[in-house]
Amino acid sequence: MTGANRPVWATIGADEERYRPLYARILGLRFVNPGGVLCFLFFEGTIALAALLSLAELVTWWAVLVLPVVVAAMVKLNDMVAAIVVRSAALVPEQERDRFRRQMEPAVGRAQVEWVSHTVTGVVINADAVPPPRRTDRSD
């Protein structure tokens, strides 16, 4: 992909594209931007895991070929879902976004308690006396 053909909502510029890991460039990831270590784990790590599983005879040798392909498909699917989310968020008008932000702001402060005229820490101002519980067993 060249810089001229990239959509406006893409998050990675054309200059940064050449510095991305080969795994991300081959999959054509636009929104998910894994680093070098994560790309290593996605590709070489899954090959090593599949090889260990096949050497332990838990899976067939086909897993060495299939597991990296399945992980790559899941990473690409995650990128496609992220693209859909970004596009749908761009369609929400700014007014709706502001209203949503106002509704989701946490209310921080102190509640006013009208029935207490003053408060002293650790002291009960007014409480009704609670009678002691009656014992029904008279064996004492």
Describe the structure.
By secondary structure, this protein is mainly α. It has five helices and no strands. The protein has helices spanning 14-17, 22-27, 36-55, 63-91, 94-104.
Poorly predicted spans: 1-8
Helix coverage percent? 40-55%
Q: What can be said about the biggest beta sheet?
A: none
What value does the average pLDDT take?
A: 77
What's the structural blueprint in terms of helices and strands?
Elements: H1 14-17, H2 22-27, H3 36-55, H4 63-91, H5 94-104
Concise structural overview:
The protein contains five helices and no strands.
Labels describing this entry:
140 residues; disordered N terminus; single chain; flat; mainly alpha
